[in-house]
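Backbone shapes recur. Consider a single case.
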Amino acid sequence: MARSRSERFDDLVLDAVDRLRPRWDKQLSAVEFAVEEVPPVNELGDGPSMGTEPIPFGRADAASGQSPAAVVIYRRPLEARARDRDTLGAMVHDTVVEQVATLLGLAPETVDPGYDERR
């Protein structure tokens, strides 16, 4: 069956998470992973002066109260920057690694030793 663009993107996120599970399964067991189309307005920078990436690719939310920790990946900003499916897959993986690293308080290179080689 034909899969929609958003379903294929979801699969890329799940693949990225699955690649991290062998090493980080215990730390990721209580983390929810989600995809949103675009970041909320309160996450958008005010133009180029806010940094090199004014539109974020994802976010990490620490657990608080009854809410579990979560990693959210934004589909449209990543798709807009990727030139092909392979590039999109690599960008999704790097974004998941970066957000997991933020959540765990680690460097992305610690979460995925191959991360630095792709930079």
Remarks:
- The mean pLDDT is 90.
- Strands lie at 32-36, 58-61, 70-74.
- The chain has five helices and three strands.
- The two ends are 35 Å apart (CA to CA).
